[in-house]
Structure of Branched-chain-amino-acid aminotransferase-like protein 1:
Amino acid sequence: MEPMVIHSWSAPRSLSTGLMYSFAQRDDMEVLDEPLYANFLRVTGADRPYREDLLSKMESDGNKVVKDIIYGPGSKRYRYCKHIAKQRVPGIGNDLMKKGKHFILIRNPMDILPSFEKVVPPSFLELGLAELVSIYSELCELGNPPAIIDVADLQQDPEATLGRLCEELDIPFQAAMLKWEAGPKAIDGLWAPWWYKSVHKSTGFDPPKKYPLQFPMSLYYLLEQSLPFYNLLKCQVRRRSQPTPELPVPANEKLLAWVGDEILPRDSAKVSVFDSVVQGGDSVWEGLRVYDGKIFKLEEHLDRLFDSAKALAFSNVPTREQVKDAIFKTLITNGMFDNAHIRLSLTRGKKVTSGMSPAFNLYGCTLIVLPEWKPPVYDNTHGITLVTATTRRNSPNNLDSKIHHNNLLNNILAKVEGNNANADDAIMLDKDGYVSETNATNIFLVKKGRVLTPHADYCLPGITRATVMDLVIKENLILEERRISLSEFHTADEVWTTGTMGELSPVVKIDGRIIGDGKVGPVTRRLQGAYKNLTGESGVPIPTSNEL
Ligand SMILES: Cc1ncc(COP(=O)(O)O)c(C=O)c1O
């Protein structure tokens, strides 16, 4: 009969022989141990202690192996072929990948490398992780994405992992797969005496060791080169076993962010553990919005970013042109020209050793441009509710709120209070009990036709705040900037907050008090309209790619 062929692809030292023994325990399965090994030795000229013996005893014409042995007739329903990824050398016809069912067995190179040296000197080529990724990618292109299993899962819970694998291969699981006899087997390749000593001692998948072996630092660079390939495949295992949490805007699942001096996919966009932002929240930031091909108030945001960096005594700061270029390139790459928000961060940079001192910052600043599709985040049609936090807003006595830094714990503690009260945000008072702003926005009130906002001594001098103050004057309304107490907010006719992320957000309830008649007020509506017009007609255009 013509058996259904199952191909297992892995790097060496990945429990692939144990897994072959496991499949060999089934009553419906015959197995082949590395049927393409001789072809690999012939084509690559690779040296092995058993090279000549193998070439004389095993078919070394890869295409013959595929046609007559791998896909040849058999006596069982299934045939399992164990392959080491690097054995898929050029010259083998397409049938190998097009036919049969394929799966990939991965193992962290951190666990492979310490025991690798036993037979051949380890190298990137010998590990074959790049080839494993290439097999994955080719099978995906063929419309046949392979199952991937990780040795760590196999060791942790063999039954569940084998069960999942069988399900993906569309074959019934058999409990016999969990145990086998110790010692050499008839199915072993003739290289077994060199490679299979420890697997011959096994009778099943042993639980993982609690602690790893010490990693040989002589293999550090090899680990560095191989790990991304393992992680790329591991990522697929994770995606299948634990679906990512729902994103507020699903389109942001695929986005490209600027980190340092390169544009990277969302999951690879990371900073070093030595970066100042990790070491001490030592970074400055801006939130910017993109409207209809233009970045609103770009120059004002960059002024504040550079002022904040200067106030914190950053050195080796990128130029304004460099920051603008990074922003434009990131937006263009993502095709984000409208309805997008940019979180722009400039950290003091990577340190040469962990610690507080800026004297350790010898690499220059790290620039991050994180763009996302993001409609305004608050309910600007019906309004939001606020509560007053007990956490006071920083005063210039300790950390000046005019510096727009990433050390946001002051605001986050207030936000926790807001979340606990099921409010949209929390009002923060200054050290004397007057209102400063909310944890994330500036705040305005209307009383008897006058518009009031706290002066900027204890709040961030927001760019939306400044824009709205200009609009208040342009709309011929009276503007007052002064200390405002909480009871004035409780008894206001209208209240709204301002910020780039949420624009103008009407506030309909504060600390359980309904503001005005609990609906969006006429002044708020008028200013929302004026703000919308302004964002439509002004801003710095994003250049087209040939202008850059
Ligand atoms: C604490 C705080 N207040 C106010 C704002 C609003 O500032 P802007 O209008 O410049 O976005 C922000 C935004 O970054 C903020 O973090």
